[in-house]
Write a structure and sequence with these properties.
CATH topology of the largest domain: Rossmann fold
Largest sheet: 7 strands, parallel
CATH class of the largest domain: Alpha Beta
Strand content: 15-25%
Structural class: alpha/beta
Distance between the termini: 9 Å
Mean pLDDT: 94
Radius of gyration: 21 Å
CATH architecture of the largest domain: 3-Layer(aba) Sandwich
Number of helices: 13
Number of domains: 2
Helix content: 25-40%
Length: 418
């Protein structure tokens, strides 16, 4: 069984990380699998780029800017949605790639930012091979947005998109929806996989994917890398006082609208008088705009951390990991924290309830309630059963999200198609 995974990149976000972990998990189960990306950024020995020569690399760069710039300049309503909407008008035909032609099954993941256009997807589908498409967000069944927010137009037909400057019945989102309808009318052989039960339920209600086979299979995680570390050793290494209570927050892009930083600020303000000098905060992730000095506690800002081993140490030295995301599928950060035995406080939204069991391994706060989010942080920091929370957190991952468990679910799916 030869399986080719297809993703825009092998590094630089949640989808690439999940895809690389699945590649490793399938290899561990002896599946002949490779990952095809636009530009290779890691040293993975089974990762192959489509853009190999100078002209191919220039074309890939051109496709990225040719798709993004017109949208940013002419279509995006605000700067916050510049990368929240993908038109998929630009891309590269990869149907002739050896890894595509020789594969028994094609497994699509996140293919935006100028890698594959809708027409390129049609070419892949027309090869007649079984296709599995893992959805890391809502894009496959919307007119172009990756997360719809409060909009429900994808349930019927996209148009009047709130992300656009000039929304109307036949706007950019409507055109994107029609292109995807054309793609899907060409085949019924695609099986869609979502990383969370929330996204599976949402996809089943969508006008585009209604009636398709949709499975919910989580992302895998390496529970050897992400495992509890010696708290005293890790705190000493990172210069964190051993006697402080540490709140950890991290995201690929801290200022992403979906990550809900405003709710974290409000929640921490409500805890200011309770903990005074007792609590400190560690933050990691890309941060160009957020001024950490507005937070009411001392902050250690670490910016982007590329090493999985370093990130595992940060989870392990923390008393609680917080993620105030208001829209998310199955965030890797939550799973990583739990695997390291660190309780998680998050809003009860998206795929997060698949991982966080309320009051058992963390706290699910009322959606968009900074007061309840603060209560969740207080629950974990003041818990008399900290060890039980930590054990429950680790066990949740061991029982549901290991490489072996997830790989076996995908292998069963592949076999059902072959």
């Amino acid at each position: 069984m030869k399986v080719t995974l297809i993703n825009t990149s092998d590094a630089g976000g949640g989808a690439p990380a999940a895809c690389m972990r699945l590649l490793k998990a399938l290899q561990f189960r002896q599946v002949d699998t490779h990952l095809l990306v636009q530009k290779k950024q890691t040293g993975g020995d089974r990762v192959y780029p489509t853009a190999t020569g100078i002209w191919a690399k220039l074309r890939a760069t051109y496709n990225f800017f040719a798709e993004r710039i017109p949208f940013i300049v002419f279509d995006a309503d605000t700067k916050w949605v510049r990368f929240a909407f993908s038109t998929a008008k630009r891309g590269t035909d990869i149907s002739g790639e050896a890894l595509v032609k020789n594969a028994d099954l094609l497994h699509l993941h996140w293919i935006n930012q100028g890698f594959l256009s809708t027409n390129d997807l049609i070419r892949l589908v027309r090869l007649g091979k079984p296709v599995v498409w893992t959805l890391h967000d809502m894009w496959a069944f919307t007119g172009g947005c990756h997360y719809a927010g409060d909009c429900n137009h994808f349930l019927h037909q996209c148009g009047y998109c709130w992300m656009l400057k000039d929304p109307d019945a036949k706007d950019l989102s409507n055109k994107g929806w029609l292109r995807k309808m054309h793609l899907l009318s060409d085949t019924e052989s695609i099986v869609f996989v979502t990383c969370s039960n929330w996204l599976a339920d949402t996809a089943r209600q969508s006008s585009l994917l209604k009636g398709y086979r949709i499975e919910a299979i989580p992302n895998p995680i390496d529970t050897e890398i992400f495992s509890p570390k010696n708290n005293n050793v890790t705190r000493q290494k990172w210069g964190i006082p051993p006697h402080k209570k540490i709140i950890l927050f991290g995201a690929a892009n801290i200022m992403d609208r979906r990550k809900g930083i405003v709710y974290l600020i409000e929640a921490l303000e409500k805890l200011r008088d309770t903990y005074t000098d007792e609590v400190e905060i560690v933050i990691f992730g890309k941060n160009k705009l957020f001024d950490v000095t507005v937070l009411p506690f001392k902050v250690y800002e670490l910016n982007v951390i590329n090493s999985q081993y370093d990130i595992a140490e940060l989870y392990s030295l923390a008393d609680v990991f917080v993620t105030p995301a208001i829209e998310d599928n199955l965030p890797n950060t939550v799973m990583e924290a739990l695997a390291c035995g660190t309780p998680v406080v998050a809003f009860n939204t998206g795929g997060i309830p698949d991982m966080v069991d309320h009051l058992q391994n963390g706290y699910l706060a009322e959606y968009k309630s900074s007061a309840d989010f603060a209560a969740g942080i207080r629950f974990v920091l003041d818990s008399s059963n900290a060890q039980t929370l930590a054990v429950n957190a680790r066990n949740k991952v061991l029982q549901n999200f290991t490489n072996e468990i997830v790989a076996d679910k995908y292998i069963a799916l592949y076999k059902s198609l072959l």
